[in-house]
Amino acid sequence: MAGIYIHIPFCKTKCHYCDFYKSTDFASRPDFLTALHLEIASRKNEILGEEIESIYFGGGTPSVLKVAEISGIVERIASVYSVSPQAEITMECNPDDLTADYLGELKASPVNRLSIGTQSFNDRDLKSMNRRHNGKQAVNAVSEAQKAGFSNISIDLIYGLPQQTLEAWIDNVEQAIALNVQHISAYHLTYHEGTVFYDYLKNGKIKELPDELSFDQFKWLKSALEKAGFEHYEISNFACNGLYSKHNKAYWERKAYLGFGPSAHSFDLKTRRWNVSSLRNYLEAFEQRKPNWETEVLSQQDQYNDYVITSLRTQWGISDHYLLTNFEPRFEKHFKAEAQQFITSNHLVVEEGTYKLTTEGLFISDRIMEQLLFIEES
Predict the structure, then answer these.
(1) Are residues 238 and 308 located together in one domain of the fold?
(2) pTM confidence score
(3) C-beta contacts of 226-233 below 8 A and 24+ residues apart
């Protein structure tokens, strides 16, 4: 089984925390759609014999497209690839795009899962992030989606924001739970270079939240969502009734996927490739029938490091048996030697040959993964 990711690069505004490739210039939208259809058709031999079990529209802001344009992309994919009748088709949406009329059209389309970028229900936080909706619109968007008949809805939240109190975060999480959605993704703010927040941080306009407060926010999030019936299946993701994000779960399970659109990544288990992060260059490449991408062939060290980064993020953890049967002995030896310090400090736990992060470990997962990676000495 494989997945397909489509990167829609258009945004009406740029959020202060986001480092994904996007453009606020919509003039090239028709040309982009033409190039996207060409790319989908041109790569039909890259996943031969694989059934597509998930299609994910990300960005950017996919909900700036017309529903007919979204449907047309899915139809193009289905005409070229073998798409499972039970495929999960997810579309990221901004709350202020989700009018009752738009949602009605969307429900009649192939899209069967929504990922709504609420980020917060607090107007102060939303304004600081340069989001183009308010808290009321975030709540209404979910309500209208449910009225339209969507029963597989995910919402996004961000914690660790500058000046965000524990009380404000608790209010956010409680409002999220009250919406009765099936999935919640909650991310700690990261200051990515090139973003407005990064510049603000470097210039002293804002300060990072203390680690202790961020950890308190994370612990409260985990506890509250688990009490509400959510399963914490990945560092930042919680699901009800087993309704995991099939698409993202496939990433963590290292299944093959194709990425279409500027900046989109692809993976065939042995190589990674990524399209040029420029809409202009992407369009020129397809006009000239010379697609613009870069490719990396993965060494066994790369594959080991990928396995550590993707698997340790999840509740299923890292299997000692998988390490033994898929990598040279030196990788398992390195892993066990480095893991011991985190077992001792209660950041890792071993259960029936599987290594998993504890609650404390989840919060410092990047630090732990960095130690577990295998870096060949030159």
Answers:
(1) no
(2) 0.95
(3) 228/177, 230/184, 231/315, 232/315, 233/314, 233/315
